[in-house]
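User: My instructor asked us to take a sequence, write out its structure as tokens, and then describe one feature of it. I'm not sure where to start. Here is the sequence I was given:
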Amino acid sequence: PSTRAECSGAYFQWTVGSLYRTYPFVIHDPTSRHQPRYTLLSADFVSSVIRIRSVKCCGYISQPGCCSECDDLDGAVDVVERWSQQSFGKKSIDRLSHDQLALKLKALAQQLASEQVKRKNRQISLKAARKRLGHYRELFNIVSLNDVPGLSRLFSTAKKEGWSAKKTAEHCLLAVEGKYHPRNYTEFDRELATLIYELGGGAALYALNKSPIMLPSRQTIAETRRELNLRITVGDVKVSDIMENIEVLFGDGDATDSI
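Assistant: Let's start with the prediction itself. The structure tokens for your sequence are:
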């Protein structure tokens, strides 16, 4: 009678590197989604040789050795070797080797450190934003609860000088207390003050200079008033007209006040 021998499985050389570090042993876990076409029977970690058996193994053969199904596992081993040499990328951990898992852990640690830095920076930015928001609220409260003299000119100066909300609020308080006077008057401000002075006199202009609109003072509009008070010559040019205009432009202001 013929004797039957149990299939011993096939031996394959693992060519990727150290079995400890490069073979994805986890693929043989029953819960793995990446089961190969063979089972691992043994591994020689010194010579990097694995003994495997096909899932379609015949079980017994007529002579010692391995069956044709086990002997034909070259392609299956090649697939696993390719897996072990691929970048871990977004692959599931149930098909990664020790080296791939170590690289993935390192990458995740770096990513975590980067996210922690971003989170810290966001916290710092949020803290700074909340602080600035508090300054803007303070500025809004000051402006809404007080008649700030020369407010439009104060804001114009703040924009030109690049003041922060905090500094602008501080100058608004100083203006309310009469300790800061924004004097960046526009041409319209000067002409309006001149008109007020000519129509209402010095008392009217003084009152508006001390009011929230804070028109220019009489001294500030002196140059504008000189230009408006020039004497226009009708007919022949007279020396008296010339002398009068010289006095208006270059005098100490008495000539304009007398008109």
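For the description part of your assignment, you could build on this observation: Residues 26 and 207 are 91 Å apart (CA to CA). Try explaining in your own words what that tells you about the chain.
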